Amino acid sequence: MSPSNSSPSNSSPSNSSQNQPFQVGDTVVYPTQGAGKIIARVTKAVAGQSNEYFEIELMKGSMRVHVPVGSPERVGLRRITPSSEMPLLLEKLEKPDLDLPMGWTPRHRREQLLLAEGNIFTIAQLVGTLYRRDVEKTLSATERKMMDDARQMVVTEVAMSLEINLAEAEAKINAALE
Question: Which of 27, 98, 104, 120 has the most CB atoms at less than 10 Å from its CB?
């Protein structure tokens, strides 16, 4: 069984609200950037055509992004993982490690793909894998950035899901990794 198949999917039964339309106030995850909250619906003119967008304020750096109301799935927007699944998510930081290629270039490509897919359980497993690799032998600067980016995605999702601050989420992740 592949590592991504061993993790709950983002459309698991506990996420049955996944098929409901997004609304202002929903907590969501924008792939590669992490968790945030839909703060408004805005109309913007793009290429001379008016379109409606969700305005999402991301937890990381208070950055804002706009996602088309009519096709949020196109960019991979999804609901935050329920708090009931956080214990399982934190367990994914522990072993088993992901089976990644030995060569740097194919390994880096695979890590990028895992991040882009946006499955938070696999991303947590990637964080754990890279953390242990860093302890055994120091990561390259590129892989360290990959680990830091993936870790931030997990931190923001844990914080939003459990309604705690980033420092508390970071402490939970550190405890799971130690």
Answer: 120
The domain defined by 13-79 folds into: Thrombin, subunit H (2.40.10)
pLDDT in tens, 52-92: 999 999 987 778 989 888 888 888 889 999 999 999 999 99
For residue 10, the model assigns a pLDDT of 40
Contacts of 138 (CB under 8 A, 6+ apart): none
Residue ranges of domains in the chain: 13-79, 82-177
Instruction: Report the distance separating Cα 148 and Cα 153, nearest Å.
Output: 9
| Spatial separation of the C-alpha atoms in residues 58 and 39, rounded to whole Å | 10
152 close to 34: Cβ distance less than 8 angstroms:
yes
Specify whether domain 82-177 bears CATH 3.40.630.30: no
